[in-house]
């Protein structure tokens, strides 16, 4: 086991989780504190030679699917593709059970699939976390989505740092004639009254254009040359579960780890610990560690996705993704991109290019919507099993109906709603953008888990990271936002320079 852990069994900073925010902590700390000894702990395997590389860069779909299965945590059984009945249900705007079967992911709750209060809980377990699978969308949140108690100028500087870490490209498929024409039509309707940064625009992606198409960025891009450092300075310990953060009187002293499949635990001493194992598993680990603030696991929140397939008549096929940003007056975020219908039953009168639309709709935040943990049942990591309890609000229902109308109006600007395809709502949780479960707050009043720097209330050296720290109502893809918040917390750790 000594070869898998730093020889002295200690680190200045231990980061639990290797996804985008955990990797951002590592990168920012290294940039600001060159001598720091950093250990990253990941429950899943390293599935690609390049640590944290994006799976969508694998062209062969069968090969990619085989790797995705390895990222499925404890259950690595294949996910069945959509069947004919589910396609027909989706076309008609009804429930499509395939939306709850994501390749390379596992479901965390067991609600009735037909229940309107289903929350589809997913997570990835592999080096790079969801950074190996995310859409790479990095849109900037609107002012109404930002954390109100972090000064605007500080937040925008952090968002710029985040864009640099992720390698954001504001127009990765520049020159797409069909997309430009479509954006101009949409802009005539949506741009008046907006500032230029909120105009209809290409979707910013963490991707690099090349002769073979886009190269999608995973956490390999965030970590950079960290992965080449000697193990004493930086190491990713894969297939290792953190069972407990060890602490006393508001001070963390280390972590208890166990190799997956083994029950032989060992301890790594730590001067600072960052818990960055997603919005479901971060509160789970804190709970298992006896860190159980009133807000822990509460306020779970995700935006809905209203889906609409449109038909666009174009002489040149569209390849790029477009975005209608959210604003105070239009609190929705809309993603528009070409889609493939080659496996779908398709109406014979459809002759144009099929265009998919994801219309993101915010959901109301409630303390009663929460993740709970069962001490009597253990998951594949040996931690208290997760359940998600969530109820749709009347406000949610009203916004969804309004959103359907907007989606149909946008579809008419693009071309027309594709014949035979209804507007439908994906199960909440389908975006995989869960927020709120380890949320930050302005003060320690029982409604938050951490402060504005992501430091857990009552602790001097314990931090949390991920989409779960976001406390606001959002409709925009949150990765740029959560990595920005991580960069603020990482800077505080680097400034403190605690050492073991």
TrEMBL record:
<dbReference type="InterPro" id="IPR036188">
    <property type="entry name" value="FAD/NAD-bd_sf"/>
</dbReference>
<keyword id="KW-0614">Plasmid</keyword>
<dbReference type="InterPro" id="IPR007867">
    <property type="entry name" value="GMC_OxRtase_C"/>
</dbReference>
<comment type="similarity">
    <text>Belongs to the GMC oxidoreductase family.</text>
</comment>
<keyword id="KW-0285">Flavoprotein</keyword>
<keyword id="KW-0274">FAD</keyword>
<dbReference type="GO" id="GO:0016614">
    <property type="term" value="F:oxidoreductase activity, acting on CH-OH group of donors"/>
</dbReference>
<dbReference type="Pfam" id="PF00732">
    <property type="entry name" value="GMC_oxred_N"/>
</dbReference>
<dbReference type="GO" id="GO:0050660">
    <property type="term" value="F:flavin adenine dinucleotide binding"/>
</dbReference>
<feature type="domain" description="Glucose-methanol-choline oxidoreductase N-terminal">
    <location>
        <begin position="226"/>
        <end position="304"/>
    </location>
</feature>
<dbReference type="InterPro" id="IPR051473">
    <property type="entry name" value="P2Ox-like"/>
</dbReference>
<feature type="domain" description="Glucose-methanol-choline oxidoreductase C-terminal">
    <location>
        <begin position="367"/>
        <end position="486"/>
    </location>
</feature>
<dbReference type="InterPro" id="IPR000172">
    <property type="entry name" value="GMC_OxRdtase_N"/>
</dbReference>
<keyword id="KW-0560">Oxidoreductase</keyword>
<dbReference type="Pfam" id="PF05199">
    <property type="entry name" value="GMC_oxred_C"/>
</dbReference>
<protein>
    <recommendedName>
        <fullName>Choline dehydrogenase</fullName>
    </recommendedName>
</protein>
């Amino acid at each position: 086991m000594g070869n898998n852990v730093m020889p002295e069994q200690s680190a200045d900073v231990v980061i639990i989780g290797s996804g985008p925010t955990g990797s951002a902590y590592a990168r920012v700390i290294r940039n600001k504190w060159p001598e720091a000894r950093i250990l990253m702990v990941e429950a899943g395997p390293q599935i690609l030679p390049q640590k944290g590389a994006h799976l969508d860069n694998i062209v062969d779909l069968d090969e990619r699917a085989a790797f995705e299965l390895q990222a499925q945590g404890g259950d690595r059984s294949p996910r069945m593709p959509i069947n004919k009945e589910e396609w027909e249900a989706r076309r008609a705007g009804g429930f499509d059970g395939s939306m709850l079967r994501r390749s390379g992911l596992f479901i965390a709750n067991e609600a009735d699939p037909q229940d309107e209060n289903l929350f589809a809980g997913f997570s990835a377990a592999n080096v790079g976390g969801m950074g190996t699978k995310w859409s790479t969308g990095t849109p900037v949140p609107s002012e109404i989505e930002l954390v109100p108690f972090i000064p605007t100028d500080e937040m925008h500087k952090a968002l710029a740092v985040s864009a640099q870490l992720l390698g954001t490209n504001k127009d990765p498929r520049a020159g797409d004639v069909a997309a430009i024409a479509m954006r101009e039509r949409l802009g005539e309707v949506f741009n008046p009254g907006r500032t230029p940064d909120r105009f209809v625009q290409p979707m910013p992606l963490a991707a690099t254009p090349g002769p073979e198409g886009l190269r999608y960025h995973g956490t390999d891009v965030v970590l950079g040359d960290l992965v080449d450092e000697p193990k004493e300075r930086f190491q990713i310990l894969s297939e290792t579960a953190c069972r407990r953060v060890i602490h006393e009187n508001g001070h963390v002293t280390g972590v208890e780890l166990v190799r997956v499949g083994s029950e032989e635990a060992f301890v790594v001493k730590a001067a600072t610990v960052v818990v960055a194992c997603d919005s479901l598993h971060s509160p789970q680990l804190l709970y298992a560690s006896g860190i159980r603030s009133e807000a822990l696991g509460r306020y779970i929140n995700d935006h809905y996705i209203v889906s609409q397939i449109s038909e666009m008549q174009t002489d040149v096929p569209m390849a790029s993704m477009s975005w209608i940003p959210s604003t105070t007056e239009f609190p929705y975020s809309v993603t528009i991109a070409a889609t493939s219908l080659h496996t779908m039953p398709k109406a014979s009168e459809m002759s144009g290019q099929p265009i998919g639309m994801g219309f993101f709709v915010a959901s109301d935040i409630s303390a009663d919507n929460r993740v709970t943990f069962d001490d009597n049942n253990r998951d594949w990591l040996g931690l208290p099993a997760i359940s998600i309890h969530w109820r749709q609000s009347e406000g949610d229902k009203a916004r969804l109906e309004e959103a359907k109308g907007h989606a149909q109006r946008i579809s008419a600007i693009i071309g027309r709603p594709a014949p035979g395809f209804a507007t439908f709502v994906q199960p909440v949780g389908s975006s995989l953008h869960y927020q709120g479960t380890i949320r930050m707050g302005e003060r320690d009043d029982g409604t938050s888990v951490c402060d504005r720097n992501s430091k857990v209330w009552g602790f001097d050296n314990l931090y949390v990271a991920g989409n779960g720290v976001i406390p606001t109502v959002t409709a925009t893809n949150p990765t740029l936002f959560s990595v920005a918040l991580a960069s603020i917390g990482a800077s505080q750790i680097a400034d403190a320079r605690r050492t073991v």
